[in-house]
Specification:
Blueprint lengths: L35 H19 L5 H10 L8 H18 L1 H36 L7 H16 L13 H26 L5 H22 L3 H12 L10 H14 L1 H23 L1 H9 L2 H33 L1 H21 L2 H29 L5 H14 L2
Length: 403
């Protein structure tokens, strides 16, 4: 029997931990993480599962021409309704990020990935049916945010390896972000397939089938919550109670942990929010902004067409490289580089030459990837293993609300 945990008012970092909690009986990692080769294969499999079970809908604007060809919301309000469905989806998904983090803390990485993949599959099927049957077009208002939200939950499965590879926690965070960006790049594949007589509906059904495969593989290759907390015990030397507390107690624990590092949280959220506001203003108004800079519609079209692969695929590569660099050189050096990239973003924006405008698009992807990487890394540093998801979720929630 566990004794009651100490009061959250006690001033130490172990207020969530039971000092007399025995370690689990099995003190070795799962079979698929016993050596470096198995770890590499396992993480590659889970990464690909996260890509296919997050899907292409994150880059929904790239799919708009295909949806228009399918006569979705056909009529005078077509563009407005398509834009509205995307805006609602983004708002809903980001508005539930804190809830997603709490779910991760309750059920662990394995079940977050499995449930996320299965429910994303349902979202893809709903989206495909909404496109297929014109009378069901309004299903997109449900299927799109549904797919977004559970795609995010699925991507959390990469965090199941954080405490098995504590020296590569930034790299793992980068891989989680990268999987979502590569998933967005699948929209480019859908566009290519549409040019070769594969309809959007067929591509969506194929993605739904891949989600089921992803759920099966995640169920095999992602550690359970028990195994993850056991790895945290080994990595930190702490004895952690793996049973999640009631929601009210979880919120009290989170409040305590954030108030304990109040100044650091304030500075980090202020910095991340400022950079995020800049990115939202630029990305949300990219086309008119580029027209203003270039005064050339043809060049603007070329830049906008280049934006999707740069942001999705280039950003994905940058996320992984940045994660590796952050682990190697440390968080302070990485923050300095991120600020330098932000300055480069400003400079390239106003030089107003074609080459520097492509650099400008690359810097958007780089700064976005850097801030997206720093948020989970900051949460790992200032939270405790049982609180990581909630801490990460509230950081993202505050950052996005301020934008």
């Amino acid at each position: 029997m566990h004794r009651k945990s100490r009061s959250v008012d006690e001033d130490d970092d172990q207020h969530l931990l039971h000092e007399d909690t025995p370690l689990l009986a099995n003190n070795t990692p799962p079979w698929y993480l016993l050596n470096k080769k198995r770890m590499l294969i396992t993480i590659t499999i889970v990464y690909l599962c996260c890509v296919f079970a997050s899907g292409p809908l994150i880059t929904f604007p790239t799919l708009v021409p295909l949806l228009m060809d399918e006569h979705v919301f056909e009529g005078e309000s077509q563009q407005r309704l398509l834009t509205l469905s995307y805006s609602i989806s983004m708002g809903t998904s980001y508005g539930l990020f804190f809830f997603t983090g709490m779910v991760f803390d309750w059920i662990g990485a394995k079940w977050s990935g499995v449930i996320g993949a299965v429910l994303t599959c349902i979202g893809f099927v709903g989206f495909a049916l909404g496109v297929w049957f014109q009378g069901a077009n309004y299903v997109l208002f449900l299927a799109l945010p549904w797919s977004f939200e559970f795609g995010v939950l699925n991507s959390f499965s990469m965090y199941g390896f954080l405490w098995f590879l504590p020296q590569y926690q930034s790299l793992l965070s980068g891989l989680s972000n990268s999987s979502f960006q590569v998933a967005g790049g699948l929209s480019l594949l859908f566009v290519y397939l549409a040019q070769h007589n594969v309809t959007l509906v067929q591509s969506l059904f194929a993605c739904a089938l891949l989600c089921i495969l992803a759920a099966f593989l995640i169920g095999i290759f992602v550690p359970s919550k028990h195994e993850t907390m056991q790895a945290a015990c080994r990595a930190t030397g702490l004895k952690i109670d793996i049973d999640p507390p009631p929601m009210k107690q979880q919120l009290r624990n989170l409040k305590y942990q954030m108030s304990k590092h109040r100044l650091v949280n304030f500075l980090f959220i202020g910095w991340a929010s400022s950079v995020n506001i800049l990115l939202v203003l630029i990305i949300g108004n990219l086309y008119p902004f580029l027209i203003l800079l270039t005064n050339d519609a043809q060049m603007t079209d070329a830049l906008v067409n280049a934006y999707a692969p740069i942001f999705a695929l280039g950003g994905a590569v940058l996320s992984v490289m940045m994660g590796f660099a952050c682990d190697k050189f440390g968080i302070r050096a990485f923050l300095a580089v991120t600020n330098l990239l932000t300055v480069t973003l400003f400079v390239s924006m106003f030089l107003n030459m074609e080459a520097t405008l492509y650099l400008f698009l690359t810097m958007i992807a780089a700064v976005y990837s850097a801030v997206a990487l720093m948020t989970p890394r900051f949460s790992i540093l200032y939270s405790t293993p049982p609180l990581f998801g909630s801490y990460y979720g509230i950081q993202v929630e505050i950052k996005l609300k301020s934008s």
